[in-house]
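As described in the Methods, two query proteins were run sequentially through the folding procedure within a single session, without resetting any intermediate state between them. The first query and its resulting structure tokens are shown here.
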Amino acid sequence: MDYPMRADLKVGAKFPNIELPDHTGELRKLSQLLRGFPGVLIFSRGYYCPKDRRQLTNYVAHLQPEFRVNYCKMITVSVDDELTTNEVRNALGADWPFLVDADRTLLHELEMVDTTDPIHGEVYIPYTFILDRDRTIYKIYNGWWYLGRPTVEEIRMDLRALMSRRQDWVYPGNSKSPETEGQSSNV
């Protein structure tokens, strides 16, 4: 399916290693935030959008506790300024990084520009990307309609699929070799 965004942003391609200031003003690269694990990259329309708030509220309530123990990462990008981003993040109780694109440079570079809101100006089309540990795009959700945004369960399933590709996904235990399988020990 073709989405209105830069043509190279498609399933199987690497997402650019974007660098933006986070909610504290520190410059952060996507690769540093993922740290070798799968992640959820959410592009937010901004503080005013009730759909964004509902989506992020669901993630705080249901996914945030799991992200603390499952090694995967969540990152939000918004056109809001640093102060507003911090206020939104704090109001939600979110503990993952929020990246600030207040000058909308990345918005235009990625060609994800939504121009339908005459009051708030150009904002992100609300995409959510599921990324593998090397930034390869596994899945893209187009959240123009709220029901196009990934549910908590869809994100769990996507991350499970990505994590299950790891060689250490299954605990090796004390497995027996094929030669000794079925032999009893004589004591």
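Immediately afterward, the second query was submitted; its sequence and tokens are:
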Amino acid sequence: MPITDKVAAAKQIGEFLQAVISNGGFKLKYRITVDPPMAENREWEHPEILVEFAGPDSGLLLERAGELLRSFELLASEILRLQGNEHEKIWFDCKNFRAQRIEELQTAARVAAEQVRRTSEPYRFGPMSSRERRIVHLALREEKDLRTESDGEGGRRSVVLYPGSYKTAGSPARRERRPN
């Protein structure tokens, strides 16, 4: 279901967070912004609702590569009944974690591209969320001598980077598949 009333959705998220923070004993504050300004030069960042956390327990949200932060975000998506790639409509962040993670993924993509060029062998990234896979695809889309594909199922889905002329087993020539 698309977010038709963003203010009401933000209120629902706020009620959820208030309950989790108070019942969980967290020392956190949060700010919810509806239609935040778009980040410069980052076309993949355009959430309709942004939730930013701060406070003494911020570190807990960021442990294990932001697992708790992502869990809060997933639960909020479920509360709003967001489907498919509508999860892009809400973002939770803490201590600029998202920007740092995007930079890590872009750097990993550049390093992998050089390795694939040097070895002429495919490179498989570790499992990633759909959001992170999209960032890798976008980071590599201008590399005309390479192609990216997502492979795997569920939580084990990852990006594979191929030399442009690489032929995969069982297929004489694969079409380039990149996000729009």
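Helices lie at 6-24, 58-79, 97-119, 130-140. We note this only descriptively and draw no conclusion about the first query from it.
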